[in-house]
Design brief:
mainly beta; 8% helix; extended
Length: 123
């Protein structure tokens, strides 16, 4: 694959001394990102795949972070992605935090809804 490499060097090297991102030339989407620790040793590698066009946006639906120093992997898979969704302003208001946590509107549409949850659904 033909790719470009972009380098980011943080002003304050608390966790990472530099971050290298490989970007696909044809799509300009990131395909891999390498994180280097403060001693400039490769610490983590993040890969992006399963890109799918959703609502005119091309997000990766699978992201893998490999921690070389700990020899561990974390996988994140997105199964329901929606863009241009109208969210109520109250979910960003600290005064309504308890209500926002209790509301289940963010649950996938095919999840079961109990009678106690029906009143909490957005209108």
């Amino acid at each position: 694959m033909n790719s470009l490499v972009c380098t980011f060097v943080p002003a304050h090297k608390v966790f990472y001394s530099r971050i290298l991102t490989w970007v696909a030339v044809d799509t300009m989407l990131p395909v891999q990102r390498d994180y280097y620790d403060v001693t400039n040793q490769l610490w983590k590698t993040m890969t992006f795949d399963q890109v799918k066009k959703l609502d005119g946006v091309n997000p990766p639906l699978h992201i893998r972070m490999y921690d070389k120093q700990q020899n561990s992997t974390t996988d994140v898979t997105f199964s329901e992605v929606h863009y241009m969704v109208i969210l109520p302003d109250t979910i960003f208001d600290p005064a309504h935090l308890r209500e926002t946590i209790e509301v289940r509107w963010w649950r996938p549409a095919d999840a079961a809804v109990t009678n106690s949850d029906k009143a909490a659904q957005p209108r």
